[in-house]
Amino acid sequence: MKLSIVATLYQSAPYIEEFCRRASDSAARVAGNDYEIIFVNDGSPDDSLARAVRLSEANPHIAVVDLSRNFGHHKR
Predict the structure, then answer these.
(1) What's the CA gap between 5 and 26, in Å, rounded?
(2) For the chain, how many structural domains are there in total?
(3) pLDDT tens sequence across 52-70
(4) Which of 9, 20, 34, 49 is the most exposed place for a label (fewest CB within 10 A)?
């Protein structure tokens, strides 16, 4: 794979389609057909996961990783 784009899905439902369109357009210009977009669902409470899955079913460049819960990045 020449280019991999990884993005989290936490309350991303309103933006995911636009992000995917822009990322795909940019990736194709840089890497041709040799790219992937990986969405990581970090326990999002909205329907980001369902939207990402639909996008992945329609586009072979898109993959979805569904984490079991929100792991976050802050110390508790």
Answers:
(1) 11
(2) 1
(3) 999 999 999 999 999 876 6
(4) 34
